[in-house]
Nucleoside-diphosphate-sugar epimerase (Candidatus Uhrbacteria bacterium GW2011_GWF2_39_13), 310 residues
Amino acid sequence: MAKKFQTALVTGGAGFIGSHIVDALIRRHIKVYVVDDFSTGQKKNVNPNAHVTRLSILNPQFVPLLQKIKPDVVFHLAAQINLRDSLQDPLNDAKINIFGTLTLIQECTKLGVKKIIYSSTGGPMYPEQARMPWSEKIHPQPISPYGISKRSAEMYFHYAFQVHGMPYVALRYANVYGPRQNAKGEAGVISIFADHFMKGNPMIIHGSGEQTRDFVFVEDVVRANISAMDRSAVGVFNIGTGKQTSINTIFRKLKKMTQSSIPERHDAPVMGEVIHSALSSREALIHLGWRPTVKLDQGLEKTVAWMHKR
Ligand SMILES: NC(=O)c1ccc[n+]([C@@H]2O[C@H](COP(=O)([O-])OP(=O)(O)OC[C@H]3O[C@@H](n4cnc5c(N)ncnc54)[C@H](O)[C@@H]3O)[C@@H](O)[C@H]2O)c1
């Protein structure tokens, strides 16, 4: 079990999901190193018991640092995470998400790292017309640079495993939400709405609001990462609830929870936006023993409670 791993590196460990993984590893008495350039992550997210280096994974100093740390296991979350930004600047997206990831894979292979757990994505990976909830058996057809870069990274992981025996798990997340999510991003509709309600700022729902997403709570995502470390499974696994929830439902639930009187307003839909998405996690149940446990209402309450405290 976890005894195998004494030292972990978490890239992007100052970010939303990464910082929760850091906490979970420290609870298990694993020595944790964080490499993060703080482009979207924040120092205050990071557990004080972690060893933090502020550095981009693209910086030439990253490789010598990796050699010095010599981790047993790596959680790779550092990424260009914004789909719309990837449309504006595909080259920057590719530099971080493909070149940065490949550098990490090569170095980890040389160092004999025992496993890499990669944070991939579910929504942008699958063709929209495929039957939902989407399973890993559906052939990926990403059409955004972000989806393409995440898929490319998965393929390099597959290559490194096949050719060099470097074990990996790529977790394709649905829409992750929870405490520490940046309300300034584009993906975190729950944190954006909750933040607006709590500050009393009006907000606009793009389109009818009947578009749906599969919302998975961050604690469940952390458990998936820990199972991926503990289990011998290798490959790509969806991490979602399989359930679709509309943006209007999220708006109304959060409005009630925060006792807000902000009215529901809509504008034109965002061109090219995926209308519905949901992931089947059957394979994760079989191979990682993982299933989501946090119900949407519980997760929303925890998120709102954290925002209150903050
Ligand atoms: N949040 C979601 O719903 C979701 C869904 C699918 C996939 N993911 C993936 O999960 C991972 C974590 O996402 P998150 O939601 O926690 O976002 P986040 O922005 O909070 O975390 C990303 C972290 O990586 C750091 N970073 C970015 N570029 C870097 C670089 N070049 N070098 C070093 N550090 C760098 C950022 O400062 C940040 O701390 C990402 O790989 C993302 O693509 C997230």
Q: What stands out?
A: The first strand starts at residue 7 and ends at 11. Residues 11-12, 14-18, 35-41, 56-58, 77-79, 81, 96, 100, 119, 121, 173, 175-176, 182, 187 surround nicotinamide-adenine-dinucleotide (CB under 6 Å).
